[in-house]
Specification:
Layout lengths: L8 E2 L17 E2 L8 H13 L4 H5 L1 H5 L7 E3 L19 H29 L5 H26 L22 H18 L5 H4 L7 H16 L8 H15 L8 H9 L7 E5 L15 H4 L22 E3 L1 H6 L7 H4 L3 E4 L2 E4 L20 H4 L9 E5 H16 L3 H14 L6 E8 L10 E3 L5 E7 L2 E9 L10 E3 L8 E2 L4 E4 L2 E7 L1 E2 L14 H4 L2 E7 L2 E6 L13 H15 L6 H7 L3 H6 L1 H6 L19 H14 L11 H6 L10
Antiparallel strand pairs: 1-2, 3-5, 4-8, 6-7, 9-19, 10-13, 11-12, 14-17, 15-16, 16-18
């Protein structure tokens, strides 16, 4: 392993509105004396979290790469290449792979330095015993978490639990991954005991580790240790225990709205569902910011700026596209689908709504940049949006999974998964889609869409003067029967009509060709212009009013079917994680631990061929002027074509192999 000498701990300077990042160290601290005041301890702890926010970790690379090459997303822009995301041989010299390794070990050494020195250092100063205890708890947890990241992607890794003191310590063999997991669980378990009074309620925000965050991540670590490749199945009981502790703490709950979870992350608000998150902030020009990039990569593509100087309003590369499998896996009435996946793309500065069969065009909209505050939304390549590390819904699903593995689909397992599903589904009928019964004719601009009752909203799209698409923008709620769809603006008396306005009356469409105030007499002719002496303004016949009907979902509680077998319940949990936790950097690890990573990605080729669903056509998506539909097919197919057993792990960085003569490369690289 590359030697890391930390005789002097240097914590990178930054500023943030987030409490965990409030302390801004200004110099170098010697470990033996660097924890002798409360302020120094806070500064040191800030440094332990810092690399999680780096662009190579959750700032961009890691968060993005863990969605790509799964059945969630693919990387489609050939101009920038997609080899690193589609399982061609990733070289051991890959910069991101190497930096990921280096930053994890750097952070581990920071944690080790604190753990090695804080007792002696704190005793020489004015640091309270409670501060020392909590600092050691956070350092133990974070050391375990950085090793958790390494173990997932490199397998066996060198295990070091003390700060580097001598260059010879860089020569160390890889520790078997099971022993690494044992150390992770030991560290985190010790941390849990040290942080019992550091709760979400006492902290008031979720960027600093709380005791329930430790417990929830412990449940995750234990599930991973119980699965492939470690297969330490006794850990299922541990996973259940730790998930149960979070549930029984009553510190956390599901928000009533799935959307609100992510609106809060977009707007830097804290809530009881987001147990742990990585915080980013974006300040006005001239102030130091700490924005992240994951939301710029994983969003609705929008690259066109406007104005002088150019302003990029909601800029996103849009290179990460969702596979249709995810879209069609959501059932009617599942409110998560149209929040997680975009219903429109950007054509320049204009929204282009998708037809129901344009499912290859869908992009990620879970953290839609349109909802960011101006200072963040107008920033081109960084964003203030927080990244979710652990949510309460994940804890419930982990509990359901562990309980099923131990005891089958018990009432407790059903209760946990059903809490997540009930929140996902509308409790009353909602508008799911529309049937256009008459496309109409003569429209010059897309007409408004309104409803006789309810709070739903929709927009229309024109093709050659006729309504070709009506898209739901708000599905509404509380419907008993489908509302009447009103397309266009009905004529009204005593209204001042501007030139070129279009109105409808008695199934006909009219264009105002002479402005004026309407009388009590509406236009009724089927050709030509009305007499302004009779109608006030001049209304010229333009064509036929479009008509449509709204289709409602059926009422459902979302509850999972009773009486499932253990195997079927396992599949149900796997699918629920797919739908609930989409794009949260968990899918690839889940598929690996379930032992279905490679075949799942390979099965995408069946989807692309269209044999599993003939409606999965391949229209060229918006922003596709630089590529063809064939290019999209090639990009989408590449992961399934190239993936193999080598891709379960990443290569050990070549620089580490050169420096550490005792370390060996992973198979296939």
């Amino acid at each position: 392993m590359k030697k890391i000498l930390i005789y002097i701990m240097i914590i990178l300077p930054f500023t943030s509105c987030k409490k965990v990042l409030d302390t801004v160290p200004t110099g170098a601290l010697v470990p033996q004396t660097s924890y002798s005041s409360e302020a120094q301890v806070r500064a040191a702890l800030a440094g332990l979290y810092f690399n999680l926010r780096a662009s190579t970790l959750y700032g961009s690379f890691y968060a993005t790469r863990l969605t790509l090459g799964t059945d969630e997303t693919y990387f489609y822009n050939l101009n920038y290449g997609y080899n690193n995301y589609s399982y061609t041989i990733v070289p051991s010299t890959d910069g991101d792979i190497g930096t990921f390794w280096r930053l994890c070990y750097q952070s581990i050494n920071y944690c080790n330095s604190l753990l090695d020195n804080i007792d002696v250092s704190a005793a020489s100063g004015t640091v309270s015993a409670a501060t020392v205890r909590k600092a050691k708890g956070e350092a133990l947890f974070l050391r375990g978490y950085y090793y958790f990241l390494l173990a997932q992607w490199y397998g066996d890794v060198p295990l070091m639990v003390h700060a580097t003191q001598d260059p010879s310590e860089g020569q160390i063999e890889r520790t078997p991954v099971k022993l690494v997991y044992d150390q992770i669980i030991s560290d985190m378990t010790a941390a849990e005991g040290m942080l019992t009074d550091q709760t979400f309620a006492s902290i008031g925000y979720s960027e600093k580790i709380s005791v329930t965050a430790v417990e929830g991540i412990l449940a995750r670590v234990c599930l991973y240790a119980a699965g492939n490749p470690v297969n330490d199945t006794k850990r299922f009981a541990d996973a259940k225990k730790w998930a149960a502790k979070v549930i029984e703490s009553r510190q956390h709950t599901l928000l009533s709205s799935y959307q609100q979870v992510f609106l809060d992350e977009i707007q830097n608000r804290y809530n009881q569902e987001n147990i742990w998150e990585i915080g980013f902030n974006q300040n006005a020009t001239g102030a130091v910011s700490a924005g992240g990039q994951f939301n710029v990569f994983m969003n609705i593509g929008k690259s066109t700026g406007s104005g002088s100087p150019v302003v990029y309003d909601g800029y996103s590369y849009g290179y990460v596209r969702a596979y249709p499998r995810l879209y069609v896996s959501y059932q009617p009435g599942d409110l998560r689908r149209d929040w997680n996946l975009s219903s429109y793309g950007w054509a320049g500065l204009n929204k282009t709504y998708y037809t129901s069969n344009q499912i290859w065009s869908r992009q990620i909209s879970k953290w839609n940049r349109e909802y960011e505050p101006d200072v963040s939304r107008l920033t081109q390549t960084t964003s203030q949006v927080n990244f979710p590390m652990l949510r309460y819904s994940d804890v419930l699903l982990m509990y359901a999974e562990a309980e099923n593995e131990l005891n089958g689909p018990t009432a407790e397992a059903y209760n946990a998964i059903n809490q997540v599903r009930r929140r996902a589904y509308s409790k009353t009928p909602i508008i799911y889609n529309f049937t256009i019964t008459n496309a109409g004719s003569g429209y010059t601009t897309a007409p408004a869409v309104n409803f006789s009752t309810g709070n739903a909203t929709a927009v229309s799209t024109l093709t050659s003067g006729a309504v070709s698409l009506i898209s739901v923008t708000n599905a509404g709620s509380g419907y008993i029967t489908a509302p009447t769809v009103i397309i266009g603006t009905p004529w009204a008396a005593n209204t001042n009509y501007a030139l070129n306005t279009q109105v409808t009356n008695a199934g006909k469409l009219y264009t105002v060709t002479k402005a004026g105030v309407s009388t009590a007499t509406p236009p009724a002719q089927a050709s030509g212009a009305s007499n302004p002496a009779t109608t006030g303004a001049t209304f010229t016949y333009a064509g036929v009013q479009a008509t449509a009907t709204a289709n409602l979902t059926t009422v459902t509680t979302g509850d999972l079917t009773q009486g499932l077998s253990k195997d079927d319940f396992r599949i149900a949990v796997q699918n629920e994680r797919y739908l609930e936790l989409a794009f949260e950097a968990l899918r690839k690890s889940d598929l690996k631990r379930w032992g279905i990573f490679v075949p799942t990605v390979q099965s995408l080729l069946v989807d692309i061929a269209g044999s599993s669903n003939p409606k999965w056509n391949m229209p060229i998506p918006p922003m596709a002027t630089e590529i063809t539909a064939a290019d999209v097919i090639g990009a989408a197919a590449a992961p399934g074509t190239n993936i193999g057993s080598k891709d379960i792990l990443w290569p050990i960085p070549q620089n580490e192999i050169l420096l550490n003569k005792k370390i060996k490369q992973n198979p296939g690289y």
